[in-house]
Amino acid sequence: MLIFKSVNTSIFKMRFYLLVIFIFSTAIVKAEITLPNIFSDKMVLQREAEVLLYGWADPNEEFEIYTGWNDKTVAVKTGNNAKWQVTLQTPEAGGPYSIKFTGKGNEIIFTQVLIGEVWLCSGQSNMEWSANSTIDNKEFEIANANNDKIRLFTVQKRTALHPLEDVEGTWEACTSETMPDFSAVAYFFAKKVAAELNVPIGLVDASWGASCAEVWTPENVFESFPELANAHKSLKPNKWVTIEPSVLYNAMIAPLTNFKISGVLWYQGESNTANASSYQNLFTHMITSWRTAWQYDFPFYYVQIAPFKYGGTYEGGIVRDQQRRTLSLKNTGMAITSDICTVDDIHPQNKQDVGLRLANIALKYHFNTFDGEVNGPLYDMVKVQGNALEVSFHNDEGMYVKGKQIDHFEISGENGVWYPAKASLKKGVVRVSAKEVKAPVHVRYAWKSTAIGNLFNEADLPASTFTSE
């Protein structure tokens, strides 16, 4: 019995000492300067902007930050909540630079830091899709992907019930080894913009295949607009990702909202065909909520989903039209991809042209360096002309038809019954009629999920799906 007590006493003492060591070592770790993972070697900071550096340290600790681009040192003091932040002005594009944090417990030095353009890339599988997942000219693109001016950060897939403060990920230079695992659309966007502007590009990829827009939308949106919560009930769970609202925003977007970005690229919508008619409302509020979180109205450029057999006759067309209507939100742009598709594959392998179209939109509207047309024809208005309708378009310069006749126009009368229409094109105006409709009221184009339209403008960009209803 005495031996037993002695052994127990020794075990107790050992556990006590281990606990003391653990607490002491934890205190030391907490005393050190730390930063979120989005700050590291090889990162890109937004050029000519006020950028926020932030992190944690010992409460009330005083330390210094040295920035190589201006050879200056600033003093920082941590608050009693163990958090610190400092706003710094970045110069024109350039680098590489270093940033050094010097505190009483540790020193951190970030090297190979570039100043340039930072773009957040998000959405579902067509944004996530990489060269390793098969793209056109795969071997050539990978072999020619070495570009130190392009830096890549992949946000690891996580969910959270409440907004987090950090993400998992690491900045990497774009090489033939790193590019194949990164978003192909984002890479081709960066390749074009970097070449045109001769500036570094930082890409932050926070995407997740099969995700619906609701999971990327903050909780307060659903609290303010309960109709969106009701529409979400139409979605069915899938095996690739949760459909629980807000959980990807909380884990993969919210932690980035203090990190200065130039804009957002978005490729999503396929997983919202089940509640297609509410997509514009949801998408508009999602974009607005992100801008509110970042506290400025950055450009938001997105890809219109391609024709595909989405499980219903019209759901794909409805989402495409809802995406078109979202262009009413300021500082948005849409790349139309109805000609970059196959209705049997939800993942078109031509990611080059998708990235190029997004890049041209950014170069025209955000950077003001591109003079060409970047939009396909977009529905403007319809006029009744007897038993026919005349449809006019924006971006209609040099409109033409690929093929012998214009396909996929339909018209309806007051009874709302739709019939295929004969269509003719003259000076940018499409005239449509159907013998079944004596008094036409509405017109729609490429409305079926699988409809691949053949109406283009002189920039060889396809016309968008639309309905005049």
UniProtKB/TrEMBL annotation:
The keyword Hydrolase applies. InterPro entries: SASA (IPR005181), SGNH_hydro_sf (IPR036514), SIAE (IPR039329). Gene3D superfamilies: SGNH hydrolase (3.40.50.1110). Residues 117-361 form the Sialate O-acetylesterase domain. Keywords: Hydrolase. It comes from the Bacteria. This is Sialate O-acetylesterase. It comes from Maribacter confluentis.
